[in-house]
Amino acid sequence: MLSWNDSVSAIPDLNAAQKRAVKKVEAKTIGDLLNILPRRYDDYSHTTPVGSAPIGRPVTLRVEVESIKKVPGFRRRVTIIRAKVKDDTGSLNVIWFNQPWLIDELKPGRDIFLSGTVNFRPKFGRQMGNPIWEPLEVMTVATGAVAPVYPLTGSVAQKTMRELMASVAEQVDEIPDPIPDSIRERAKLPSLTDAYRAIHRPTSLDHAEAGRRRIAFDEFLTYRLALGATRKEVNTAGAPRVSFDESFAKKFVSALPFTLMDDQKRAAWASFKDMEKRVPMRRLLQGDVGSGKTVVAAFLMAMVYRSGHSAVIMAPTEILAKQHAESVRRFVTGADHAPIMLLTSGDKRMWEEGSEKKLKLQEARDRLREGRIIAIGTHALLYRDMLPPDAALVVVDEQHRFGVAQREALSVARRPDGLVPHLLSMTATPIPRSLALTLYGDLDISIIRTKPTGRLEIKSSVLIGEHRERAYEAIRSEVRHGHRAFIICPLIDESDKLGVKSATEEAKRLASGPLKGLRIGLLHGRLSTADKDGVMNSFVEGLLDVLVSTTVVEVGVDVPEATVMAIEGAERFGLAQLHQLRGRVGRSVHQSYCYLMSDADGPSLDRLKVLEQTNDGFVIAEEDLKRRGEGNLLGTQQSGAIIFHAARSSDIELMMAAKESAEDLLASDPDLNIHPDLRQIVEHLRETSHGE
Ligand code: ADP
Ligand code: MG
Questions:
Q1: Which pLDDT value is given to residue 626?
Q2: What beta strand segments (E) does 397-442 contain?
Q3: CA-CA distance, 423 to 118, in Å (whole number)?
Q4: Residue 595's beta-bridge partner residues?
């Protein structure tokens, strides 16, 4: 038998491929290995007879290879494999492109599963194109017919991983369970050992799901416990007092170019109250895109500076940090001549006593150390070591980058004098309250529900195939009226992480086709910071009409003249993300339009229709949550501490159960002294989230 903490070298009877796999996934212990969770499951328990396979819908077939051959491709580099497969009910043609090795793998007589869609082509009849195939042996490995699909590295084969994981899960001894039985039983969850077996050797999809829920529960529980510890630390540390100056507040408000909305005032006033206390503020400011959160932050920062301290705001991207610097400067200097610093990796500058100065990194660091300043920067730069020693307020913008959010929720930025600055988190993602409380602890929430007056609702349309022309037509017409357009391209595939390919090709196509004659700029992740800024600034200033871009423009960018947002391959995005993107337009009194373009059909399109019907971010977020696995707010793509592997944002009930259990545990055992295993996990979680 194997133990959880045993080295992977203890696994008996590995074949060469499995040994390579163990090395590739960089697992040191049995536990590391079992924690590699399947991305999804293929269900081979429901196969369709070949004779009755429908056209145009995904099916799984269980067949025998009858014949297979390589045929010359129409273009030189393309290899085509044609096979004929059969079962008792009929036979079917199958075609694969660019997989020459299949000739050796799929010998006539071999039994396999095929997953794909059957098409009808007049010349070839019924045919399946590029199906995924699995050897029939998955049955014996997965005991039932439900096969885990693992995230793979390099040359490791799915089959190798499956066999390896199933065998390790079977051989593993009782896994020490850090969670008291009483809690586990109340939540109706399996033991850890059963959970890992269910995950790696499921007998049905429900079985696998029960296993996943157990691991997800543990993630929520330990996260809650860690939050509890952080909260305790924050509350005992104390905060700098920021005194409220009413005449200054009046001056600030009257110097603004617009009237504050009630929700904005309420959010600011609640924060001023919080900051007068010795207990650090922990407040979440939620407001849909374009609702005007920045001015609230600027108001607080101005007040903090006024009362003799420093304030900082952190943004997730350079472009956004720059826009914040612009707005904050505009809002603050109407009432006070505070020194303001912009701090990004590519641009460090200072506005003080009416002049602007570029800074070197060391100069910026030195100036921050002097304190009594308002600083605007990216998360990466301002976080922790660049924090001014007299920082009384930290504003974190666009918390929907949850990797960052989790890390910040769990960590405490302390000043050299031991005090903890007040914290305002701003997010445009309308997070359901239950999720917000789980992610941030018992924070206070302010919501801006209204939009600045005079705004028109964005008109959104889903455009399929050639109906795209409507979007191009609108773009040409808007540009004629002096407005601008965004065109967003999705990532084509995994290897194209930065979306360089799709955006570049699309820009070319548009420039020589539908948008010929317009000034088109291109923005993607591989451009240097200077080039990115150059393109973005040209767009902001109106030197470009159209910006073809990947999602790097996703958050916060404010270009009031932009009135069209066209999104290519819209079905690839979550609803919440599409809503975010759409929020780049509709930032002025002009009518704005959003076009969701797609070549897909079926359920992914119905989903997009939600955006045609509503502009309410809360409704959209709820819709996203309802459709599982999508718009996952706990998403793991972002960098930073990843805490939730098994948990999903749709696990609301599980999340609430974990929250209650954590509260019970802490009530009877505040320092987890009688639950040392749990305490160790929690401490580890807090440590790993503190560092980068
Ligand atoms: P977000 O909440 O998405 O960060 P911003 O703070 O960028 O929104 O605000 C969007 C735009 O609305 C900005 O141009 C800002 O100056 C403007 N704005 C903010 N508050 C008001 C208001 N009360 N009246 C009119 N315009 C406003
Ligand atoms: Mg914003």
A1: 67
A2: 422-427
A3: 55
A4: 461, 566
